[in-house]
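#lab-general

N.A. 3:47 PM
ok so I finally got the sequence cleaned up, no stray characters, all 310 residues accounted for. can someone with queue access submit it? mine expired

B.Y. 3:52 PM
send it over

N.A. 3:53 PM
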Amino acid sequence: VVLLEIALAFVQTCVFVSPGSHGEFNDQPLLPGSVWFRLLTCTTVIFFLDTSLRILTFGLERYWNRGRVRHCFDVLSISALCAMEIVVCCFASPPDYLLRALLALHISRGLCLAHHIPPLRYLVALVAHLVPVYHQLGFLLFLVYYIFATIGVQIFGGQIYEGNEKLNGSGYAEAAYWSLNFNDFPSGLVTLFCLMVVNNWFVVADGFLRVTNKSASIFFVSFFVITNLVVLNILMTLILESSATVQQELQATGEPDAESDTPQRTWSRGAREFVLQRMLLNDDERLDSIVSGTSGHLNRTPTAGGSSAA
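B.Y. 4:20 PM
back already:
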C-alpha cells in the first residue's frame, strides 16, 4: 500500500509540473474532484483502518512499545493526512499551498519503506541511537555562534551597507553580499554560518577588513580555528566513535525488531559519557574518573548498621 501511495503521488506530481502546461503548474490533479486525489484518499483510509485495528487489537500501550519511532510516525502522519484531506474537501476552491502540503505529506509516507529495507532499517536505528549524542556538541557550537555573533554586532554593527565607498571595487560588493553583515543578531548568525561552511569566506572577511582595519582579521581567523578546526573536528570524531560503538552494540544484541513487545531501549547516558571520555581524556584522566566514581559509589553504600561508610 505504501508503494502504491508513493506511485500515485509521483504520477500526480508529474502531471502537476507537466511541461505541456507552458511553464505553469497544473492544479487539476491536486483538486478534491480529481481521480488522483480520490485514489490517495483511499490509501489514507486504508492506513487509518489498519492503524485503528492494530490499536484495538494490541492496546495502545502494547502497540506503542512494538515500535515507538515507526508507530509514532504512523499515528502523526495519518492523523495529519486525515485532518488535511477533510479540510481540503470543505473548500470549494482549496488554497494552493494546502494542496501542495498534502501531496508532500503523502510523499513523506515513503519513509515507512525503511522498515522493510534492511540497510535503511539499520541506518534509521543507528541515527535514533546517536541523536542524544549530537545535541551535546551541537549546544557547544551554538554557544560559539552566540559569543561570536554578539562580539561581531558590537564591532562591525552598521559598518556594512550599500553605497559604502570603502567597498567600491571589492569582491564583496561585486558579489552583492550585502545581507552578510553584523548589523543585527540574526544576520550575524547567517554570516557566521557562511564562514563556517567556507563559502567565499575570504571575500566576506575582506569586506569587513576594508570597512575597519587589518586587525579585524583576528576575529575571522579565531572563529575559523575554533569552529572548523576544533568543534567540527570533535563533532566528526564523536560521530565516528559513537557510530562504531553503537554498531557493536546492535550487532551484540541483534537487529532491533519493531514488532517486539518489549519497550525499545535507548542509548544510556553512561554509554554516551563513556564515548566522550574515551575521546577527550587520556588514559590517566579516564582512570582517575573511574576511581573517583567508584569511590563515590562506595561512600554512598550503607553499612550493616545503616550508616554510610566513611
